[in-house]
Amino acid sequence: MARRRPMMAANWKMNKLLGEAREYVEQLLPRIEGVEGADVALFVPLTALSEVVRLTEGTPVLAGAQNFYYKDSGAFTGEVSAPMLLDVGAGAVVVGHSERREIFGETDEMVARKAARAVSAGLLPVVCIGETKEERDSGGMWEKVSGQVRAVFEHLDDDISGEAIVFAYEPIWAIGTGDTATPEDAQDATGKVRGLLGELRGEDFAGAVRILYGGSVKPGNVEEIMAQEDVDGGLVGGASLEAESFAELVNAAANV
Ligand code: PEP
User: Fold this and answer.
1) Is ligand 1 within 6 A of the CB of residue 176?
2) Which residue stretches of the chain have pLDDT < 50?
3) Could you tell me the pTM of the whole model?
4) For a surface tag, which of 30, 99, 141, 247 has the fewest beta carbons within 10 Å of its beta carbon?
């Protein structure tokens, strides 16, 4: 099966004021100039989104949000919709990050509705899935992760292509802890996810979906993680906050 185009995605989380966002993009662009072998996405705070869209216009960098709500408008104080993200030029959005699920109470059902709305709006959703340490230690990794994936497909239209959605396997115990999954664990989980996608939507679909790994990815471990057959890139928090280290990750992904 042909390898999918790698993607390296930065999740800035709740970091960077406008000036810092500008400085970052100015430092990043020359460092990834001419890189052709990978897609690059920056998931930035909403306050910086239009500015990052403006600064990355005409470059291969995709600017995106870290969350949205699946209704298009109305009495949903504090939320933004898919049309609003498109309106400021976003091309992608993170959906169901474990911090949204754990801190803000997002359920599998909400995540699934968001993923479906992103796809129907033409935004590329990066749907996060992953287990806690307790779930892993008690042998419940696959029950958790497969349940999260199955829930998404209860809301996604039948006729979408595999290129229209990205999954990010992010074991919660590896996020922001410095405790990366072994390359074998990353392959085990992403390979199982791809197998399930095949059961749910067929081999062509499964072969086209990109599955990223997230959880303490950094320049020192990116190559061995990217070398895994079913890992198509990274969703990166901490190591994406400095343009220099994120550029190293992008270059590593492009050279797989
Ligand atoms: C993330 O926020 O999705 C993430 C993987 O963070 P970190 O790289 O810091 O573990």
Assistant:
1) yes
2) 1
3) 0.97
4) 30
